[in-house]
Each structure stands twice: as C-alpha cells, then as structure tokens.
Write a structure and sequence with these properties.
about 30% helix, four-stranded antiparallel sheet, eight-stranded mixed sheet, alpha/beta, 12 strands, Rossmann fold
C-alpha cells in the first residue's frame, strides 16, 4: 500500500454556510495500481485529488503516504515527499506558464530537487512523451492542446514520482487526441512502475484506465470495486444511474440521467442520495449508511445491502 486516507474531510465556508466538499473519505491505494475516481461535477473528486498531493490542506483526517503521516507536515517538511507525489491538471492551457519555454518549464522542478543533468533529462523526457528535442525552445502557445498535455505530463514525470494524480487529464482534448494521451499514460505507468489516481466524469475513460473504481457523491465514497466488477454489477442506485447514462448507439434508447434532477444539496440527516433515490426507505432519511463489503473487494454504502 502506497497511500492511505483516513476519514479525510475538507469544508469550505461560503458566506454563512459550510460546504462539505469532501466529508469523511477513507481509501487505500495499492502500489502499482490505477484507482479511478468518478462522479458528477461538484462531487468533490478534484478537491480530494488535490488533498492527496497536499495542494489543499484537509479540515480533518489523515493522509498516510508510504507509511508516513504527512497530514500535519509543514511545506518545508513535506518537500522531500513532493517529488514522489505529482499531479497533472485538467487544462493544459492554464497549467503551463506562457512566459516560459518548454525547457524552462521542465528544468524548473529538476533544479528544485537536484535531479542530474538538466538538458539531457529534458530531451529524454520530451522523447518519452512523444515530442522532439527542438520543441524544448518553444513556448506553450506554439503547441496544440494534446501537445501541451504531453508537456504537462513530462513536467510531472521528470522528477520520477511514485504516485501521480491525474485530474481529468483528457477532458479538454478532442476525442482522437484523448485516445493518444490515455495510451501514452498507460505505457508510461508500465514502463516506470508508477501508481495512478485517475479522476474523471467519463465512464468509458475510467473503465479503460482503472484497476479499481471509487464512485463519489456529494463528498462521500458510495461504492468501491474492481473496475470490471463495478461496470458489470453496479449496486448503489447512484452508480446504476451513472451506468444508464452511458450513451447507446441505438436512437430508440433514451439517456435517462438528468431528466428530473432536483437542486443538489447535502441533506442534514440521512443518506445524502435519498432525495434523488427511487429506492429509498424510511431509514435512509434518518441514518447515513456505512460503506460495507458485500463481496470480496466490492464495497457499497447503501441500506439495500
């Protein structure tokens, strides 16, 4: 196990109310696996990903990386861990400094962490992500979206991290380019023996990339299972709703998600999905179901089970 989250929470104060972006998430991530995190926009998956790499400090809970509790470490204390944990952001247009050349972008983390010959490593990592030596002297605006994301991936990998959080790394790209980037990420993971946390709202991308999948709803994990098991046997009513939202090539089949969705707010008591749930029971309105293991490796937070 390379990463463990224990009852992780992140609350934001917005005016007079408190937004519970992440509300009691516990997860274990095995070394070498790809854990997919899926859910609708606003479910807290990006906040969770940023907490994993300590870009956001948690309100409560613990983050244990490779057996060491890094939750309360100062930035100075965490610095030796920074090169072991990296993140690739969603938007390659805004995540790269437009005033820096590719060489400057890639060499900066190396200078911070002192990782060998800068020029040699810059050229090597560019070739590894499918770019060329001459690209090093260019600026981000001279590249396509797919090329920029390759540069962002190169920046994350140049310090040889063990864990990489990928926050919707292909959602801003054309479909044909998405496939190239996903295949590149798979090849790099195998070659470098890394661990991925892959965050996305795209079910097909999650199934292609992930070994296990965690389904998030309003700040909580509602289902966790091996990828094939989750897609073939979804148990939580919310997961089943997501699965039915996958587009069908048959025009007579209607896409049912979002036909009648109420304003999404976290209920004060009970299961947070019960205002939308067609299978709710009286118990769901007063108690929050725990995440329980219903079959080997398959966890679900629902009183139906």
């Amino acid at each position: 196990m390379i990463l463990k989250l224990e009852n992780l929470k992140k609350y934001f104060k917005v005016g007079k109310r408190v937004v519970k972006a992440v509300d009691g998430v516990s997860l274990e991530v095995e070394k070498g696996e790809t854990l997919g995190i899926i859910g609708e926009s606003g479910c807290g998956k990006t906040t969770l990903g940023r907490m994993m790499v300590k870009l956001i400090e948690p309100t409560d809970g613990r983050i244990i990386f490779d057996g060491i509790d890094v939750t309360s470490m100062s930035q100075k204390e965490f610095r030796p861990f920074r090169k072991r944990v990296q993140i690739v952001f969603q938007d390659p247009y805004s995540s790269l400094n437009p005033r820096m050349t590719v060489r400057e972008i890639l060499s900066r983390p190396m200078k911070v962490f002192g990782k060998g010959d800068v020029e040699e490593r810059v050229v090597k990592i560019l070739e590894e992500v499918g770019l060329r030596r001459e690209h090093a002297g260019r600026y981000p605006h001279e590249f396509s979206g797919g090329q920029r994301q390759r540069i962002a991936i190169a920046r994350a990998l140049i310090v040889d991290p063990e864990l990489v959080v990928l926050d919707e790394p292909t959602s801003a790209l054309d479909v044909s380019v998405q496939a190239q980037i996903l295949n590149l990420l798979k090849d790099l993971k195998e070659k470098r023996n890394m661990t991925y946390i892959f965050i996305s709202h795209d079910l097909s991308v999650i199934r292609y990339m992930s070994d296990r999948v965690a389904v998030m709803y309003l700040g909580r994990i509602v289902e966790l299972a091996p990828a094939d098991e989750l897609f073939e046997n979804p148990l939580h009513p919310y997961t089943r709703l997501l699965m039915r939202s996958i587009p069908e090539p048959d025009p007579s089949v209607k896409n049912i998600i979002g036909l009648s969705v109420p304003e999404i707010t976290i209920p004060e008591v009970g299961c947070r999905y019960h205002p939308r749930c067609p299978e709710k029971m009286r118990k769901c309105e007063t108690e929050e179901p725990p995440l329980v293991e219903v079959s080997p490796g398959h966890f679900v937070g629902c009183f139906l089970y």
